[in-house]
Amino acid sequence: MMRDHYVFSNGRLKRKNNTVYFEDEKGNQIPLPIEKIRTIHLFGEIDLNSKLLTYLSQYGILLQFYNYYDFFAGTYYPRERKESGYVIVKQSEHYLDKYKRLYIAYQFLHGAVHHMLRNLRNYKAQTMEYIQDIEVLYDQLSKATTIQELMGREGQIRHIYYQAFNHIFKQDFVLEKREKNPPRDPINALISFGNTLMYRTVLSEIYKTPLNPTISYLHEPSTKRFSLSLDIAEIFKPLIVDPIIFSLINKKQLTKKHFDYLEGEICHLNEEGKKKFIMAWEERLKQTVKHRTLKRSTSYRYLIRLECYKLVKHVIDDEKYKPLKAWW
């Protein structure tokens, strides 16, 4: 089974004969089983060369780079892609047509809010007031006539959703407000870290389809941004990221000792905390459900790819897009 590999230390990635090694700053060499690796995530300061990149390309391995604050810095993706000029043209048509774009954007949020409500209903004794407030706004999403109006209502929903978090946590953790750049408390740090992993995972699945990741519908396309991954991730953040956060905190697998502060105010997971989160993350992506259409067990990761292919079918006018809404 293919898997992701995570590197937290500083060092060097290098090829020696037909083996790839990670060499840390002390000179210790760790061989990487590249025939079993899908993506390598680099959180440390890593040296590498074009010879290594060429070799990794032969195996179709992605490299994901993160900066000092654990924010995404860039991707190296092998040249081979399932590109389709026809799909790109049709993607663009659906962006340029106001009504077609609004339909897709609405569907992304429809799936996202469904999963937010699903999370809160697992704790409905503590969150019923928030559920009711979100349900009112949920019904109003379909009345939006512009992307800006849709995003505005989504912002209201997410504000209420995050307020409910404080009634879910069993530890002394508080989310006063959502702060992204930079996160200033442990919960914001967890949300940001989890969302970053989500965006990178969605992007890696988009690359396995003919979709162009820069053409998006809910988030405005811009230079140097894979905004389609942000769109599709809206559906999966509350389905995958948030339940991981609730579980790790309530089971006390993450406590305040797993967080550090940079420059006195930027909160982030320390290495031990990141490893715990990533272990839960990988387990969640491998978890399977019985797919109602395919009639077989399907992993959470593969559900993301299926969502991408559903969008392909929609833009080529093969099948109307409807978002994933967890039924299990």
Automatic annotation (TrEMBL):
Gene Ontology biological process: defense response to virus; maintenance of CRISPR repeat elements
Enzyme class of the recorded protein, top EC level: hydrolase
One example GO MF annotation: hydrolase activity
EC number: 3.1.-.-
Cross-referenced CDD domains: Cas1_I-B
Key words of the record: Antiviral defense, DNA-binding, Endonuclease, Hydrolase, Magnesium, Manganese, Metal-binding, Nuclease
Binding site for Mn(2+): 154, 219, 234
InterPro entries: CRISPR-assoc_Cas1 (IPR002729), CRISPR-assoc_Cas1_C (IPR042206), CRISPR-assoc_Cas1_HMARI/TNEAP (IPR019858), CRISPR-assoc_Cas1_N (IPR042211)
Co-factor requirement: Mg(2+); Mn(2+)
Record function comment: CRISPR (clustered regularly interspaced short palindromic repeat), is an adaptive immune system that provides protection against mobile genetic elements (viruses, transposable elements and conjugative plasmids). CRISPR clusters contain spacers, sequences complementary to antecedent mobile elements, and target invading nucleic acids. CRISPR clusters are transcribed and processed into CRISPR RNA (crRNA). Acts as a dsDNA endonuclease. Involved in the integration of spacer DNA into the CRISPR cassette.
Quaternary data: Homodimer, forms a heterotetramer with a Cas2 homodimer.
Protein family membership: Belongs to the CRISPR-associated endonuclease Cas1 family.
Protein name: CRISPR-associated endonuclease Cas1
Gene: cas1
